[in-house]
Automatic annotation (TrEMBL):
The entry's keywords: Carbohydrate metabolism, Lyase
Enzyme class, first EC level, given as a word: lyase
Pathway(s) served: Carbohydrate acid metabolism; 2-dehydro-3-deoxy-D-gluconate degradation; D-glyceraldehyde 3-phosphate and pyruvate from 2-dehydro-3-deoxy-D-gluconate: step 2/2
Gene encoding the protein: eda
Subunit architecture: Homotrimer.
Protein name (database record): 2-dehydro-3-deoxy-phosphogluconate aldolase
Signal peptide span: none
Keyword Lyase: yes
InterPro entries: Aldlse_KDPG_KHG, Aldolase_TIM, KDPG/KHG_AS_1
Keyword Lyase (UniProt): yes
Listed SUPFAM superfamilies: Aldolase
Length: 205
């Protein structure tokens, strides 16, 4: 996977899988709305099963694993055949495992020092998390000066109303958000609304 691949996604829906079948239906709705990738977080016991089910049911949708917080979890993700993993932060152990892993990895950063650490490890793309509480567009503009070679996937606090502001920045390769996959929409099986929101996001991204 290349930076060009990531930039083609533009918007990466961040999903917490609480039920496998519902996650598959959600993924189908996102794909029908034009989404080409989905991030399923490792926040629930159902996550890995949901990842496998979505990969089988919607083969044209790139499935990434999110909230990877340890080398052990990264090993599980690699074993599952997932091509991309993302983390909210990055420990020494996780970073070392990620650099050696045969998949793409986007580590979470929140400070300039963390960006430097990731860059020193040879990684070019980071996940700014939580983006909006950290300063949103302003912090990304600030990081662009000392780190012109680094790209970011801001996640955390992005909404239907502000995500385009992030995508307009030259150092943003894609952005993560959950406004189109909220628990309320999923719990009420509002698949058409999810498809509509996905299409809307892709149309303006």
């Amino acid at each position: 996977m290349t930076v060009d691949d990531l930039s083609a996604f533009r918007v990466l829906p961040v999903v917490t899988a609480r039920e496998v079948d519902a996650t598959v239906r959600l993924a189908r709705a996102l794909h029908a709305g034009g989404m080409r990738a989905i991030e399923i977080t490792l926040r629930t016991p159902e996550a890995l099963a949901a990842i496998a089910a979505v990969r089988e049911s919607v083969p044209d949708l790139l499935v990434a694993a999110g909230t990877v917080t340890s080398a052990a979890e990264l090993e599980q993700v690699v074993a599952a055949g997932v091509p991309l993993a993302l983390s909210p932060g990055c420990t020494d152990e996780l970073l070392a495992a990620a650099v050696a892993a045969p998949i793409e990895f986007i580590p979470g950063v929140a400070t300039a020092s963390e960006v430097m650490r990731v860059r020193d490890a040879g990684l070019r793309v980071s996940k700014l998390f939580p983006a909006v509480p950290l300063g949103g567009v302003a912090i990304l503009k600030g990081l662009a000066g000392p780190f012109p070679d680094m790209l970011f996937c801001p996640t955390g606090g992005l909404t239907r109303d502000n995500f385009r502001d992030f995508l307009d920045l030259p150092n943003v390769v894609c952005c993560g958000g959950s406004w189109m996959v909220s628990d309320k929409l999923v719990d009420n099986a509002r698949w058409q609304d999810i498809e509509r929101l996905a299409a809307e996001a892709m149309a303006v991204s």
